[in-house]
Structures are given as C-alpha cells and as structure tokens.
C-alpha cells in the first residue's frame, strides 16, 4: 500500500503537468507590449482632400446595387444601397492630383431626411501613406453643413488608427446627384 500512494502521486503530478503545458499552448490570446510589435510613439495626423462622387453618366463611380420595393416612392430614397469607388484628389477639381480612392458603400437609412449609413475605406496611393488605408463607418446627414464620422481602424501606416473625419459638401449638382465633398481627417496612429 505504501508503494502505491507515491506511484499515484507521481502519475497525478505528470497528468497535471501535461494539462498545464497543453493549456498554455492552446491559449486564445495574450497581452503584448506595444514595443513587441514595433509600435513607436503615437502621433496625430491631419489629412485634407476632396472626394468625387459621380452617380450619373457612363463613367459613374457610385452605382445603386440594391433597393427596397418602396425606395423610389420615398422622398429620401430610403432603402437604396450604393457601392462606390470615388477618386480622392488634392484640390476640388477632378483633374487635380489623385491621392487615393474612397471605396465602400452607403445606404439611405433615414425615412425623414437624407441620412446615409456609410462604410468606406480611404485607400491612399500617394506619398508616405501609399498602400495604407483608413476605415470609416458612420452616419452622414448629407445636407448638414459639416458631418462627422468616426475612423474605426486602418492598415499599413495607419494600424491601430482612431479618430474622426469631417465631411463638407464643396459642390453638388441637384439634377444629377454628382458631388464633390471636402474631407478633413484627424487620425491618431503609430
């Protein structure tokens, strides 16, 4: 009997050790220090550009991809979903320097005003941000003077991004729906 107890204790000790090793190797997450993934000091950047949303003509950059049965009877086009790939330029003129593309979708989400639910990425193609993106998701009350939407993330030089954008209509053609929108972007990133 005296020899059985130490054997049982040894077996239990081995089983507990194996369980602890297995638990450690199957961890779902762990805490990291920012320096372990090469994050430097956080900085605040301001970007300024113009978005060209062209919904009319052969070379439209924004197209309706879905709608509700009642969308065309709604004064706000409630239920319309538009996919877009809009140019981002340095100046309001379409032929000014291209700095990136705004790619995503917006839907008419209000039955009482022209209010859009917006999901978009700013994909930059110029300068030090070439290849980096910012992701924006929020409400855009189109006829408000300035609309603010949150930055919810980013990639490349904008990893761990957070901040906000301010959109202000520069020009809009009420007949065609084509618009140029000025963006001021305030973003914290590493």
Structure description:
With 190 residues, the protein is mainly β. Helices cover 12% and strands 45% of the residues. The protein is built from 1 helix and 9 strands. It has one helix at 4-25, and strands spanning 43-53, 62-66, 81-89, 98-108, 115-124, 133-141, 147-155, 162-172, 179-189. It has an 8-stranded antiparallel β-barrel with strand order 1-3-4-5-6-7-8-9. A hairpin with a 6-residue loop joins strand 7 (147-155) and strand 8 (162-172). The longest helix has 22 residues, at 4-25.
Keywords:
8-stranded antiparallel beta barrel, mainly beta, 1 helix, 190 residues, elongated
Order of strands across the biggest sheet? 1-3-4-5-6-7-8-9
The strand count comes to 9
The percent of residues in helical segments reads 10-25%
Q: How would you name the oligomeric state of the polypeptide chains in this document?
A: single chain
Rounded average pLDDT: 90
Between the first and last Cα atoms, what is the distance in angstroms? 65 Å
Order of helices and strands: HEEEEEEEEE
Strand content: over 45%
Query: Compute the gyration radius: what is it?
Result: 26 Å
Which class best fits the helix and strand makeup? mainly beta
Low-confidence runs of at least 5 consecutive residues: none
Largest sheet: 8 strands, antiparallel, barrel
Number of helices: 1
Shape: elongated
């Amino acid at each position: 009997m005296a020899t059985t107890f130490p054997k049982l204790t040894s077996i239990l000790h081995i089983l507990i050790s194996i369980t602890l090793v297995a638990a450690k190797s199957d961890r779902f997450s762990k805490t990291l220090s920012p320096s372990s993934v090469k994050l430097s000091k956080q900085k605040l950047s301001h970007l300024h550009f113009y978005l060209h949303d062209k919904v009319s003509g052969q070379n439209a950059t924004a197209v309706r991809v879905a709608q509700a049965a009642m969308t065309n009877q709604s004064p706000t086009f409630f239920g319309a979903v538009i996919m877009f790939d809009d140019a981002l330029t340095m100046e309001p003129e379409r032929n000014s320097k291209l700095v990136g593309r705004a790619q995503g979708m917006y839907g008419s989400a209000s039955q009482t005003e022209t209010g859009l639910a917006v999901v978009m990425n700013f994909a930059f193609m110029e300068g030090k941000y070439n290849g980096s993106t910012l992701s924006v998701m929020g409400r855009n009350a189109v006829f408000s003077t300035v609309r603010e939407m949150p930055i919810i993330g980013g990639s490349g030089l904008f990893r761990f991004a957070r901040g906000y954008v301010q959109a202000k209509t520069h020009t809009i053609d009420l007949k065609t729906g084509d618009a140029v929108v000025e963006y001021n972007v305030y973003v914290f990133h590493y």
